[in-house]
Fold this protein.
Amino acid sequence: AQSVTQPDIHITVSEGASLELRCNYSYGATPYLFWYVQSPGQGLQLLLKYFSGDTLVQGIKGFEAEFKRSQSSFNLRKPSVHWSDAAEYFCAVAPGYSSASKIIFGSGTRLSIRP
Amino acid sequence: EPEVTQTPSHQVTQMGQEVILRCVPISNHLYFYWYRQILGQKVEFLVSFYNNEISEKSEIFDDQFSVERPDGSNFTLKIRSTKLEDSAMYFCASSGPSGNEKLFFGSGTQLSVL
């Protein structure tokens, strides 16, 4: 069965420091992978997605993620975080681009930024 | 960027009462969804809706739940007789004409059942 694991419940980093949020998935084939962000009082916003091709994916707000098949991982990175990046981040997996109903979300990682 | 709008942002109700959560999807979208997130748990799919009918639903979406598109703009989720365990954040989402586009999520309605 498909699953998504985000092992870090809460991460605190200093403003300007680099960030890496971990995501591991379990799926038989190559899945479609997503990162969403939820800022306080806001909806879920798509940061980036991976379907195929280049395993390093660029997203909005300066985020990127790298798909590593051998490690079943899709970690989110940002070289220098800003205070506005404080939010909840969700990794998600789906078996197909059109299978929105089958999107499975991870439990989320809350990111706090230290001034 | 276009937005999905949800109202109210927070709803408090007594156990056994009916609630209606409202959503205004993006105007040219044709696929609509409800998800929920119980505090501390994952975001879970509830139901998808297309062409005025449910296209898919999860095990969570039992007979106490229903969805409706009463007019050309609103998309509602009704919980007939709320239970304590229905307390959660409910997210509405919509996607474009083919259903293959990305989902746009609303900011959610926090439902508290007392």
